[in-house]
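Re: How this chain folds, sequence and tokenised backbone to follow
How to read it: Take the token row as a discrete description of the fold.
Start of record: The labelled sequence and token lines come straight after this line.
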Amino acid sequence: MTTTASDASPKGLGNGPEGPRDRARKASRRLSWATAGRTTAWTLAVVLPLAFLGVFFAYPVATLVARGFVTDGVLDLGGFAEVLGSARTWRVVGHTLGQASLGTVIAVLLGVPGAYVLYRRTFPGRRVVRALVAVPFVLPSVVVGVAFRALLAPAGPLGFLGWDRTFPAIIAALVFFNYGLVVRMVGTVWERLDPRTEQAARALGASPLRALLTVTLPALAPAIASAASLVFLFCATAFAVVLVLGGSRYATVEVEIWLQTTQFLDLRAASVLSVVQLVVVALALTVSGRARRSRERALALVETSRATAPLRLALGRGRGGSGLDVAAAALTAVVVGLIALPLLTMLVRSFRHDGAWTLRHYANLATTGDRALSVSVWQATENSLRIAVDATIIAVVVGVVLALVLSRRPRSRLGRRGIGALDAAVMLPLGVSAVTVGFGFLIALDRPPLDLRSSLLLIPIAQAMVAIPLVVRAVLPVLRAIDPRLRQAAATLGAGPGRVLLTVDGPLVLRSLGLAVGFAFAVSLGEFGATSFLARPDRPTLPVVIFRLLGRPGDGNYGMALAASVILAVVVGLVMTTAERLRPAHAGEV
């Protein structure tokens, strides 16, 4: 038998099957496959969510915008001249900017003292009050409109003001809706501020008010600016609140788009107005993004400083800072009382009929009302829950994948810029009107292969578009808080990319997933803007049914709207309470 050189080589020393060169080649091959697999996985993690957003957000919005520029395939800017030359258009734009500006100013002026009391001071029941002021922000906008109608109606507790269906009613509802947002965004920064700077100013002779104005408020400026820009955005794109409380008389751009589409059938004018709204939203998002980046930098500084416990609220005479405490506490108590009043009024009136206590309105939820509905309220509730579950699943899957991508820290400048651009793109659905999205779905997804007008997934997808940014904001801060060295250590110990993702990122994602699911479900359940365009008469959602009941005359229909609003508010409140209990400490703010 002939012996070859390779056969004669000692095992493990020569070029045989188990030799060092073969092992090196195998290791190199495995490394190449691992690298290729990791690259493919992250590429898919970026491409698939972006493709989803491109098809179901960018394409419908772009198609809608194109309607304002193109007529019969030819560029035509005549629609802009016609719409922008109308006095009605500028009156609508004026209402939009006026209500957004006034609502923002009042919400910030009231919210900053509230942040001081609820985050820098401690008192019995503080946690309950915090929860109460957070409730309006997660309530469906239709419910807020119904609550204020009940409060300001001639027979309501504040009917003597004569504000029913007036501009002040809209402003009051917008402040009610956004007060908790200001308190939370400013308060979470305020409670982490290092108090030693303010204490130094006081030691040098500054009064409590002067120390507040010259030291504390400048430090809070990024948080206040970030909160104000978001409140302006939400006020400018308010739809159901304005529609329920003001109607066409105080129409904003968003309401006008809905009116031009559903009542006047003027798609061209609606498209031009959508472009106008996109410009306003883009400016608000730019300011919000810059303020948020400043806020994140400020948080990075204060979180490394010495943690301090909040001081007890000083209301007695002769105690340091008691003047500010008394003023802030009194203002906050008044605002909290006014926040509770619309909700309590709506609850009480849902049990009243002809001056007597009754469960009649709740019993009527099993009917279609006085010929106002095609299905019962309970059927609409079932539709809403089913759609919200589907929308939540879509939003959580897409949002978590995007949060994982955005949590990476690329070393190259190009990579960091790419992550920043992706972050901005993900936030666009939060700023673009839901009415614009729903309208875009109608005119864009109407032909193969994207003819989804008869698909049951159309509404869940539209609602998921609104919820995805909130899921990202709930999960992303937790992932960004992970020390990169943990991932590096796991990889050094032999864990593959998938194992690192499951063992390092996975547990923290699960911690924040409860809040993400809660936000997505609550937003989907109460969404009205896009759903009002897309819901079929035989499959309405609960917010659509409430609006239809409000639009029909009769005490029976109005009482049913009150009862249905209470049901919707209770469900959303239970969902958010459960989600808040699952929220990890310092998970970040949405």
Q: What stands out?
A: The longest strand covers residues 70-71. Residues 77-189+220-298+326-349 form a domain with the MetI-like fold fold (CATH 1.10.3720.10). The chain is about 70% helix and 0% strand.
